[in-house]
Design goal:
Blueprint (H helix, E strand, L loop, with lengths): L1 E5 L3 H10 L7 E6 L2 H11 L4 E5 L5 H10 L2 E4 L6 H11 L2 E4 L4 H8 L2 H6 L3 E3 L8 H10 L4 E13 L14 H9 L2 E5 L2 E5 L6 E5 L4 E7 L7 H5 L3 E10 L3 H10 L8 E4 L2 E4 H12 L6 E13 L2 E12 L8 H18 L7 E2 L2 H4 L2 H10 L5 E3 L1
Parallel strand pairs: 1-2, 1-4, 2-3, 4-5, 5-6, 6-17, 7-12
Antiparallel strand pairs: 7-15, 8-9, 10-11, 11-12, 13-14, 15-16, 16-18
Helix pairs in contact: 1-12, 3-4, 4-5, 7-14
């Protein structure tokens, strides 16, 4: 099995850690535009199976030989590149998964479905934590019911020792975080697909000590293709991001002030600066502090089974792996994508084309693979 990993950041490190445990791996090529990031990963793993290359993600002609050699490709670069990378994977006959992050990009990837089928490859967008893991868990929870009324997906990556008024630490790309906060959220309400503004719909929920009362609110991307898949089967389905209380109101105020507008600029000492790029740089600086992280996941499906009302809950509280240098977000984001790519390459997922996880990834087997990696869901039926 020859694997290509695009990106050498935190999530890519999680992929490589997981892939190296597969005895069928023959080679892993890792590509990033930053040589220091490649050097850091090389020093971390020290494996003869790894090879490193400093190439830009949009240099498709330079990437093509690596795609041609690969059985499977994982994209851990910003979502802006994923459509071109998907087309290249199809052309070269390589299975492809990515971490998604943008509904428009994913929609365009699905237009390539027939081309992927013709090339007999599997393309699975949005393969991280949410969407990704939660899409598969939600579908599996829904399978426990004969009639499905409501599906609620609640997920958050949080610092265990929160600092700053935002009570948040960056645990993945700031670019992706801002996108989740400003793009519309797609849900099912009263049996129909609709969009709602992100950073709205704030609710309170409780998690076990030491977390207590937290807030959750609509954000973009978390439902991925689920509304289209389940529109005729579910009355209500939505996704909300979990944060410490007060986070949403502060972030929304900065969004309303225009800090996330990438079309505007301002001047300081004669220099023109892009508003969103500057805001992202500020967050990247201020929200990088020492604190272990935790990922909270709760999927709730309500409906009927055998004529009686029934609620199915899958809940996980996941921490980092200090011994292996993996944060909680790395484990819960990288491992699902790694599992899905390995399932494609090993023909445990036999569907081909651009695939919806909630349909094509076998839930029982997927949960079993998560448990092999120390990720466990408590269930309440």
């Amino acid at each position: 099995m020859n694997i290509l990993v695009l990106g050498a950041g935190r999530m890519a490190q999680g992929f490589v850690f997981d892939m190296l445990k597969n005895k069928n791996i023959k080679s892993i090529n890792i590509i990033d535009r930053e040589q220091p990031a490649l050097d850091e990963m090389k020093n971390h793993f020290k494996s003869p199976l790894l090879d490193f290359h400093c190439i830009e993600a949009d240099s498709l002609y330079k990437l093509k030989p690596f795609f041609q050699k690969a059985d499977g490709v994982i994209s851990a670069v910003p979502y802006d590149y994923n459509l071109d990378l998907t087309e290249l994977a199809i052309e070269c006959g390589a299975h492809f998964v990515d971490l998604g992050g943008n509904n428009t990009v994913v929609e365009r990837q699905f237009r390539l479905d027939q081309k992927a089928k013709d090339q007999k490859v599997g393309i699975v967008p949005d393969c991280g934590l949410a969407p990704g893991m939660t899409s598969i868990i939600s579908a599996y929870a829904m399978d426990q019911l004969a009639r499905i009324d409501d599906v609620q997906i609640r997920v958050g990556g949080l610092p265990l020792s929160p600092q700053t008024p935002l009570k948040y630490k960056l645990v993945f790309s700031v670019h992706g975080l801002i996108n989740e906060y400003i793009e519309p959220s797609v849900i099912i309400e009263d049996g129909k697909i609709k969009t709602v503004d992100s950073m709205t719909g704030i609710e309170t929920l409780d998690f076990p000590h030491p977390f207590g009362k937290l807030e959750a609110f609509y954000t973009s991307g978390g439902t991925s293709t689920m509304p289209q898949t389940f529109e005729k089967d579910v009355i209500n389905l939505d996704y909300k991001t979990i944060r410490y209380p007060g986070h949403a109101s502060l972030m929304k105020a900065m969004i309303d002030l225009g800090f996330t507008d990438k079309k505007t600029t301002f001047e300081i000492d004669g220099k023109s600066l892009n508003t969103r790029a500057t805001f992202e740089a500020m967050l990247n600086s201020l929200l990088q502090y020492e604190s272990d992280d935790v990922v909270l996941i709760r999927v709730t499906a309500k409906g009927q089974k055998e004529g009686t009302e029934k609620t199915v809950i899958y809940q996980a509280i996941e921490y980092g792996d200090k011994k292996n240098g993996l944060t909680a977000m790395m484990r819960t984001t990288a491992f699902p994508a790694s599992i899905i790519l390995q399932m494609l390459v090993e023909n445990k997922i036999t569907d081909r084309g651009v695939l919806k996880q909630e349909i094509s990834v076998p839930g029982f087997e997927f949960i079993g693979e998560l448990e092999k990696r120390g990720i466990y869901f408590e269930t309440d039926f």
